[in-house]
Amino acid sequence: MSTLPPPIVAVHEPVKDSRDRKTRKPLFFFDRIKVSLILVVYFGFAVVLKHADIPIMSWEEAIRDQLDAKWWVLTLLGIEILRQIHYLIGERSARYNQFWIRNVWGRWNGWWDRRNPWMRYRMSRILKFFVWGSVVVLVLASYWGLTFWETIAQMPRRMIFNPFANGQMPWFFSLIFLMGTIVLQFLAMFWFLGRGGVETYMPEDIKTRFTDVWGQDHVLTKVKENIVFLDRPKEIEDKGGYVPSGILLWGPPGTGKTLMAEAVAGETGKPFVFVEPGAFIQMFFGIGVMKVRRLYKKLRKLSLKHGGVIVFFDEADTLGNRGGAVAGGSRSAGSAEARAYESLFTGGCNGGHFLSRGAQRVLRDELVSNLTAGTTSDEPHRRRLRDPFIAGMGGGGMGGMDGTLQAILTEMSGLKKPRGFFNRSVRGFLCIPPKQPPKYRILTIMATNMPQSLDAALLRPGRIDRMYHVNFPALEGRRRTFDGYLDKVRNVLTPEQVESLALMSPYASGAMIKDIVNEALIVAIRHGRDFVTWPDVIEARVFKVHGMPDGMAATKLEQYETAIHEACHAVTTFLLRRRDVIDIATIEKRGPVGGFVSWIPRVERDFDWRSDWEIDVVCALASLAGERMFFGGDNSAGVGGDLGNATGLITSMLTRAGMGDTISSGMGTGLAAKDDVDRRVEAKLRELYARAELLLQERRWFVLAIANAMLQRRTITGEDIEAIFHGTRGPTVDGSWYHLSATRQRLEDFHVAAVAAHETHEVAFDISPPATPVTPIATMPPPRVAAVRLGASWPPPPRHG
Length: 801
Fold this sequence. Notes:
By secondary structure, this protein is mostly helical. It has four domains: 20-193, no CATH class; 198-322 and 394-469, P-loop containing nucleotide triphosphate hydrolases (Rossmann fold); 475-546, Helicase, Ruva Protein, domain 3; 556-789, CATH 1.20.58.760. Helices cover 55% and strands 6% of the residues. The chain has a six-stranded mixed beta sheet with strand order 1-3-4-5-2-6. A three-stranded antiparallel beta sheet has the order 8-7-9. The longest helix is centred in the N-terminal third of the chain and has 28 residues, at 117-144. The termini are far apart.
C-alpha cells in the first residue's frame, strides 16, 4: 500500500510592521548634513561679505569678527551636531532609542495631551509667534548692527513709519512686504465678497431641546446616540471603534429636520454653526472654496475650545454633485416630475384626490416616465427618479462646478492630516515626523428633501455615517404635536377633539400642524375671541389643507351638474372604502379643480392590494357612469382626468403588478403586444365601470341627496354624508330629512327639471333646490372619525332600503 507524501503547506511569515522597529530609521546622508551645511555656507558667506567690505582686514580677522557677531550660528551648529549624534546613537541602540521615546518624549507627550486642547492650541500659537518673531529680530539685528533688544525697540519706528528709507529693511524683506501687500488686497476683496451665509450660535444662544421636537421619536432615539458619542467619545474609541461624524436627515419639507439639528446643539451644549443653502453660490469661481476652508478653520477652533462643534448644512442638495455640469437630462427630468404631480392633482373636475397614496405614486411614476421619454431613452436613468440614493443625478446647485463640493469632501475626510507650515514643512526639513493634529470633534448634520441630488462621495461612510428618514409623523406623533402647539395658545379643545384632529390630518408635517393651530388662532381673533374652539380648528384645517375657494359664481345648472359628478365619487368612496372615511366633499372651485371629494385613511398603510386599486378605479369611473346615468347618456369633459387616472392605474396593474390574467411584468415590444394590452385594459375598465354603474343605480337616492346638500352648503363634511346615509343629524346637515318619501320625490322632481334644462341648453335655470334643515356651525360636534378608527362596523346597514 503506497503512502502519499504529506502536502506541502506554504508558511507565510508575518510581515514586520515599521512601527515595530525598536531603533530609529537611518537617515539619508544628505538629510543628515543639510542643516549643518546650510549654517556653514551662511557663516562662510558672512565672512566673505565682511572681508569684501573691509579689504584691509585679513581673513583670520574676518573669521574672528564673524565668530563674535554670528555666535548664534555657532550655537545652532552645535545643537545640530548634538542632534545628529543623538540620531546616530538611536539608529544603533534600541535601548537608547526606546528610553527617549518612552521616558522622555512619551512622558512629555502624555503630560501635554492631558492639557486642555484649546490651551494647547493657544500655547502652540504663542510659541510659534515667539520663534518666528525671534528669527526676524535676529536677521534685522544683524542687518542693522544692533543688539537683540535694541532691534525690538527700534522695529516699530523703522518698519512702520519709513520702511524703505535708507535701506531700513533687507531687500528680501522689502520684497516679502510688497508681495504681502498685494496678496492682502486680494484677500480683503475676496473676504468682503465671501461674507455671509454662515452663522455661529454659542451654546447659551440655543434654547431648543429634544422635548421641543414632537412626532419623531424613532429618529430622535438614533440621533441621541450621536450625542453620546460626541460627549463621551472614549466609550467607543477605547473599544476600537470610531465616532460617527456625519448625519443626513432626509424627508419631506416641514417634518422637523432643522429643529432636530438645533435640538442636538442645545442638548450637547456645543456651538452650532448654521450654513445657509446659498452660502457657497458666489459670483466668482474660487470664493466658494475659500469660504469652505475658512468655515472648517473656524470649526476646528470651536471644536478645540468647546470640546466639540455641530455644523448644519440646511438644504444640502444645493451643494449638487460633480456630475451636475454634464447631466443634461436631470433638470428636465425633475421638471417632468413636477409636471406629473401637477397634472395628477389639477386635471379635470376632481383631479386625483380620490386615489389612494399607492395609486397616486404609481400614476406619478408613469407620468414621469412618459414625460421624460422625449429627453432620454435610457430607462435606468429614468428610474433614478424613484431611488433617492442613486448617484449621478444632476442636483440643485452649483456645488460641483466650481470646486466647492470637492473642497467640502476634502475637509470632511482630511481632518486627521497634519496641518500648518511649521508642522509639515519645518519639521519635515529637520527630519522630525509631523505631529498628528488633535481629534476634532465635529458633528456634521445635513438636511435635504432631495437626497438624490447629493454626490455619492458625500454619502459614503466616514463622511456621512448615518442616514435617517424624517418622514411625516404617525398618529401618536401628530397627536403629540397638536398637543404641543395647542398648549401655547388658549383653547377649549377636549382630548377627544385633539385625537380626532390628529386622525383627520394624515401625512401632516410638524410645520403644517403648527400652521393649522396658528390659523385657528387667527380665526378665533377674527370672531372676537382670545381662545381657540373646535369650529376654529376645523375652519383653519379646511383652509390650510384644501385651500381657499376662488369665489367664482357658476350658474345654478352648472353647480348641480358638478354636484352630481362629485356625489357619484362620494357615494362610491363612502360605500367601498372600508379603510377610509370622507373628509369633505365640495363643489367650490379651487384653481383648475372644479370640485373634489377628499378622504382620510382610517389605517395608515404602506402597500395596496389589487382590491384597493380596483376600488380606486371604480371611484374614478363613477363620475362617467353617474353623469351618463343621470343626464341621459351625456357626460362632461371633466371626467377626462378621472379616465386618465383609471386607465393608467389599470395599465400598471395588468403589466407591472401581476394583478391581471398574466404573470409577466412589462408591456412587451411590438404593435401586437400593445394592442393586446389595450384590449385587456379596456376589458378591465368596462368590468369596473359596470360595477360602478350598478352601485349608483342601487343608491340613486343617496347620490341625489348628497348633490342636494352640496348645492346648498357648497362644502359638506364626511360626517354629513354619513348622517345622510344613516338618517341622523350631522355637523351641518340633518340627514333624517332625506329619508322622508316626500323629500326623495322632491329631489327626483328637481332632477328632472335640471335634466330638461341640460338637454335644452336652457340658460336661465333658476329653480331652487329642495331646502334641507342645516345645523349651525357654532354647534358643530367633533367628527366620529375616532370611533370609526377604533373598530366600529363600516358602513352600518341603511335604515331605509
